[in-house]
Write a structure and sequence with these properties.
mainly alpha; about 70% helix
């Protein structure tokens, strides 16, 4: 009982109860269902069915905009249905719905617009399940790794639909490769996290980049060379921007619905560095986390529109990556400096700010947000500036078969830049606290497990 309440002889208002796993999962499923409904409203069932067939049988090397392959309707329905399937798997596995799980599911939703589909993700998921069984551990323990790990789903499609192999060879080879990838991802991801110390939020992007590089090198040595793909649509900003605007506004409104006094919780969110693992749902509750997700999504979309970019499958996928990780590390204070750094990079380097790769670098590059949060906005700008170059050069080593190309590049940037920053600060600011999550962040991470 606080002092004022004691004087009045009343009890203080009780703190809102934490949202249950079921509630959080239903919220995610509702947004997935909204994509299905929007897709059907845009193109109709018949066109969506034809578009889905085209998407499922397409090669998915970066960049393959599903809006250009099957239409906006089919792309959105694929994203919504795949995310609903993933939600069902989380439910059946009894997985804890942490901020990391929410980020993972929103990544499924976003990347199912340009690379992940209802067919190509399951061998990798099954491979992680096999690893969990081999270890004698519950699949729920590794479920986030499984669905983050489908960054390499295009490898399955590339082998299956390249046309260079007979079906009797391509089918078992594609399935076997997917299973093998899924089996090695959990131990590899755990080890590689140490390289960047949580300063790149897309640890699986870094891991998938290295694993994908090895897989591509192996297949290239046998003469199997993936052909590049580039499908990019434009001219739909009004339609897609209106839909996204409603989605982000609803997140903020729903956040207030879960917690009327969410401003104090949101202040806790923006006070963190964002260094992984920082679970905003455990730290501040579902309401502030949802509001942060909607706000970060609106900032990401506004950036694209202000620089004259296109809203399409890849760009919306990047926006929803920002949205998802706004439950697990990103907030306005630490993402904006990264975006500014990429923007400045476009002014100083031989490319335009509205080039597809640079648009995506500005959004996906916010994986480096913890650098801005921990070391200051100026280092965030530096990280974004460097990332704008790194993201454009690492793609050939994995032949575009790692959907998290920016995560791979950012892992390299963080692994090199952070030790340099620490060395500089050790020289200029003796006695400064070493780079680890704060006490509140550690408590949130522990509570979210």
């Amino acid at each position: 009982m606080d002092h004022e309440a004691a004087e009045q002889g009343t009890n203080p208002a009780p703190a809102p109860a934490p949202a249950s796993d079921r509630t959080i999962l239903l919220v995610v499923a509702a947004y997935a269902a909204a994509f299905v409904g929007f897709g059907l409203a845009v193109d109709g069932p018949a066109a969506v069915a034809r578009g889905l067939a085209a998407i499922l049988t397409s090669r998915d090397t970066l960049l393959t905009d599903y809006f250009g392959i099957g239409g906006i309707g089919a792309g959105c329905v694929n994203a919504g249905l795949l995310t609903l399937c993933a939600c069902f798997v989380y439910h059946r596995a009894g997985a804890k719905m942490t901020g990391s799980a929410v980020a993972c599911l929103f990544l499924v939703l976003g990347f199912a617009l340009f690379g992940k589909n209802l067919l190509n993700v399951w061998p990798i998921v099954a491979g992680v399940a096999l690893y969990a069984r081999w270890r004698g551990e519950a699949f729920a323990t590794h479920i986030n790794t499984a669905f983050f790990g489908v960054a390499l789903a295009p490898i399955f499609s590339e082998i299956l639909f390249s046309g260079t192999l007979a079906a009797a060879v391509s089918v078992p080879l594609a399935v076997g490769t997917g299973l093998a990838i899924g089996f090695v991802l959990p131990p590899a991801a755990a080890q590689l996290f140490k390289a960047h110390m949580g300063f790149s939020l897309y640890n699986m992007g870094f891991t998938a980049g290295l694993v994908g590089t090895l897989v591509v090198a192996l297949y290239k040595s046998y003469g199997f060379v993936p052909d590049p793909v580039f499908v990019w649509t434009s001219g739909n900003n009004a339609l897609l921007g209106s839909f996204l605007g409603v989605v982000f506004a609803s997140m903020i409104a729903l956040g207030f619905g879960f917690e009327r006094g969410l401003l104090s919780g949101w202040k806790k969110v923006v006070a963190t560095t964002g260094q992984s693992p920082t679970d905003f749902i455990a730290l501040a509750g579902l309401g502030p986390a949802l509001a942060n997700m909607g706000l970060c999504g609106a900032i990401a979309m506004a950036y694209i529109l202000l620089v004259g970019g296109d809203l399409n499958g890849p760009v919306i996928g990047a926006i929803f990556t920002v949205v998802g990780f706004a439950a697990f590390g990103k907030h306005p204070r630490n993402i904006v400096p990264i975006m500014v750094g990429v923007f400045l990079g476009s002014l100083a380097k031989p490319w335009n700010i509205d080039d597809p790769s640079i648009l995506l670098a500005a959004l996906f590059g916010t994986t480096l947000a913890p650098i801005a949060g921990r070391f200051g906005w100026h280092w965030g700008v530096v990280a974004g500036f460097i990332h704008s170059s790194a993201a454009l050069t690492v793609g050939p080593v994995h032949a575009g078969l790692n959907l998290y190309n920016n995560g791979f590049a950012a892992g390299i940037v963080a692994s090199v830049l952070v030790p340099v920053i620490i060395a500089i600060q050790a020289r200029t600011q003796p006695g400064r606290e070493p780079p680890g999550p704060s006490g509140a962040e550690r408590a949130a991470a522990k509570g979210g497990k």
